[in-house]
User: Which sequence fits this backbone?
């Protein structure tokens, strides 16, 4: 399928999802952008009410490391982040009101977390070029971003993603299990 047809299809799907009511998060879940590496798009993390963003990042990584199935995608171990990426300044609240200027790519390979990931950087660059006039910002949703959340919170995460991003791309690949999405 040509890339422009795929992008159009995703935009149509997401425009329907964007009609999710503003009060969709009944659990108090919010989204933050985590600048884990200066060279990669910021990761989108769900944060529980009363939870510090760094604690949410640590919760995610702890659950990722405990999942034998998901760790098969990371043969070299968990992604490495320096201690500065867990400081308060590395996190920024995301706002659904910026919907039209935010795009999201879904990571599904170990290399997507690498600061030199050509695939990830190319997607971010492609979005920036295509939407240069609207200042589109690209973010990345980590593999199984709802790790450690209960079912209601997982549903809220999906609703918040639909409200917050005008473009969603699952990068895909032959090794990506659809259950991860």
Assistant:
């Amino acid at each position: 399928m040509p890339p422009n047809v795929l992008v159009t299809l995703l935009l149509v799907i997401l425009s329907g999802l964007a009609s999710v009511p503003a009060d969709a998060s009944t659990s108090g879940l919010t989204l933050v952008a985590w600048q884990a590496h200066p060279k990669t798009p910021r990761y989108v993390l769900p944060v529980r009410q009363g939870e510090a963003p760094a604690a949410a990042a640590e919760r995610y990584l702890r659950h990722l490391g405990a999942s034998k199935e998901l760790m098969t995608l990371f043969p070299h171990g968990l992604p490495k982040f320096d201690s500065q990426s867990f400081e308060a300044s590395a996190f920024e609240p995301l706002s659904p009101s910026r919907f039209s200027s935010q795009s999201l790519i879904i990571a599904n390979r170990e290399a997507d977390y690498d600061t030199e990931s050509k695939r990830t950087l190319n997607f971010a660059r492609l979005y920036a070029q295509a939407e240069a006039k609207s200042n589109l910002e690209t973010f990345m949703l980590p593999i199984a971003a709802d790790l450690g959340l209960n079912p209601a919170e997982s549903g809220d995460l999906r609703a918040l993603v639909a409200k917050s991003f005008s473009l969603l791309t699952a990068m895909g690949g032959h090794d990506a299990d659809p259950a991860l999405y």
